[in-house]
């Protein structure tokens, strides 16, 4: 029997404040019509002063642990994907560990922006498969509202805050992560980046994006890596029950699904409700679809994401 990483539980958390396009249009030169037509976004949640990447991650983690039916002290690994950590150091994963009351485990952050959750999942899966850990919390959590330039209408309307988490458990059997593949191409830094950092400007900086170029790369890279992981798993797009994609833009989801000849009904879409929550978007969408009953045990899922770097990746999972 093969030792695999099974998704034993899922959870998510959103800030209390929900902002509509119409509300945004009161302070930004934009309109509900433009945002819906170009992106599919209708709402986003924005963190209040007491809500941070760490608090959202902790709430999502607690929900995932409860749904897995385990005790927090059984977690021996926490991998948290974020581009908006609470502090430059230590890792936000250690704040989550402390908040969960776990005395000892391995805990670290992964920075791969919007594909961070796929990176974190791959690392955790490798550690579980090798026997280095047995039960992992894999979290994607972000407060992008804190790094947005609210004067730049081309970016500030696109993002939201939130967190999603899964409990991964090493088990023998057919269920679990069947294939996972990551990529990076650092030549594209200037298309999507933050113009600050501790080692350069000494400031946190603001997000900058050349959206149209990112869009083009996203459709090409995502469809290619989805095919690659399906091939690795010995499956084809016809075997896929659900695609759980990074939620950047409804038009990217449509174009990618078309390239793989997947019907739109098999794609989980939450971008309308949450906007782009970067590393949180895949586990957040997964949790929504698990809780509303669309995703069932035994289903074949493809998770995928692409973001700044560029970095991108996909994973095929028998849920
Ligand atoms: O998660 C990381 C990966 N990120 C992505 O995948 C994002 C990928 N890119 C996109 O989703 C799209 O490129 C955007 C949604 C960012 C932009 O859509 P677009 O169709 O590529 O529009 P555009 O940037 O070419 O802008 C078209 C027009 C421009 O006006 P002109 O020059 O044609 O007069 C913009 O100034 O829309 C204007 N515009 C806006 N108008 C109203 C840009 N932002 C806004 C806005 N409200 N918020």
Automatic annotation (TrEMBL):
Name the source's superkingdom: Bacteria
List the EC numbers from the record.
2.3.1.180
Q: What are the Beta-ketoacyl-[acyl-carrier-protein] synthase III N-terminal domain coordinates in residue numbering?
A: 108-186
Main subcellular localisation: cytoplasm
Q: Reaction(s) catalyzed by this protein? A: malonyl-[ACP] + acetyl-CoA + H(+) = 3-oxobutanoyl-[ACP] + CO2 + CoA
Q: Which UniProt keywords apply?
A: Acyltransferase, Cytoplasm, Fatty acid biosynthesis, Fatty acid metabolism, Lipid biosynthesis, Lipid metabolism, Multifunctional enzyme, Transferase
Q: Where is the active site?
A: 114, 246, 276
Record bears the keyword Lipid biosynthesis:
yes
Record localization:
Cytoplasm
Pathway connected to this protein = Lipid metabolism; fatty acid biosynthesis
InterPro entries membership: ACP_syn_III_C, ACP_syn_III_N, FabH
- Renumbered to this chain, region (ACP-binding) spans 247-251
Q: Where is the Beta-ketoacyl-[acyl-carrier-protein] synthase III C-terminal domain?
A: 230-319
Q: Sorted alphabetically, which PANTHER family does this protein's record hold? A: 3-OXOACYL-[ACYL-CARRIER-PROTEIN] SYNTHASE 3, BETA-KETOACYL-[ACYL-CARRIER-PROTEIN] SYNTHASE III
Record text about domains? The last Arg residue of the ACP-binding site is essential for the weak association between ACP/AcpP and FabH.
Summarize the protein's role. Answer: Catalyzes the condensation reaction of fatty acid synthesis by the addition to an acyl acceptor of two carbons from malonyl-ACP. Catalyzes the first condensation reaction which initiates fatty acid synthesis and may therefore play a role in governing the total rate of fatty acid production. Possesses both acetoacetyl-ACP synthase and acetyl transacylase activities. Its substrate specificity determines the biosynthesis of branched-chain and/or straight-chain of fatty acids.
Q: Which family does it belong to?
A: Belongs to the thiolase-like superfamily. FabH family.
Assembly and binders? Homodimer.
What's the name of the protein? Beta-ketoacyl-[acyl-carrier-protein] synthase III
Q: Where is the organism placed in the taxonomic lineage, from the top?
A: Bacteria, Pseudomonadati, Pseudomonadota, Alphaproteobacteria, Sphingomonadales
Query: Gene behind this chain?
Result: fabH
């Amino acid at each position: 029997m093969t030792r695999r990483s099974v998704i034993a539980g899922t959870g998510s958390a959103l800030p209390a404040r929900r902002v509509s396009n119409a509300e945004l249009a009161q302070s930004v030169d934009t309109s509900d019509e433009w945002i819906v037509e170009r992106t599919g976004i209708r709402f986003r949640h924005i963190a209040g002063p007491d809500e941070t990447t760490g608090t959202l991650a902790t709430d999502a983690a607690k929900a995932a642990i409860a749904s897995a039916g385990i005790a927090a002290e059984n977690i021996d690994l926490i991998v948290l994907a974020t581009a908006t950590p609470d502090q430059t150091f230590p890792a936000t994963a250690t704040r989550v560990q402390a908040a969960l009351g776990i005395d000892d485990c391995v805990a670290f952050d992964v920075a791969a922006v919007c594909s961070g959750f796929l990176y974190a999942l791959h690392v955790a899966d490798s550690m579980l498969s090798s026997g280095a850990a047995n039960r992992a919390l894999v979290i994607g959590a972000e407060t992008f509202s804190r790094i947005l330039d609210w004067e730049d209408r081309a970016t500030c309307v696109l993002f939201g805050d939130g967190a999603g988490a899964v409990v991964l458990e090493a088990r023998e059997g057919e269920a679990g992560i069947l294939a996972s593949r990551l990529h990076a191409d650092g030549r594209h830094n200037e298309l999507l980046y933050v113009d600050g950092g501790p080692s350069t400007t000494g400031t946190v900086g603001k997000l900058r994006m050349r959206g149209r170029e990112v869009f083009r790369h996203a459709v090409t890279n995502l469809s290619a890596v989805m095919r690659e992981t399906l091939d690795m798993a010995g499956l084809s797009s016809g075997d896929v029950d659900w695609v759980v994609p990074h939620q950047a833009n409804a038009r990217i989801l449509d174009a990618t699904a078309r390239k793989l000849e997947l019907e739109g009904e098999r794609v989980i879409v939450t971008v309308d409700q949450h906007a782009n929550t970067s590393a949180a978007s895949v586990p957040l969408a997964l949790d929504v679809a698990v809780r509303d009953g669309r995703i069932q045990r035994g289903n074949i899922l493809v998770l995928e994401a692409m973001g700044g770097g560029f970095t991108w990746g996909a994973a095929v999972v028998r849920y």
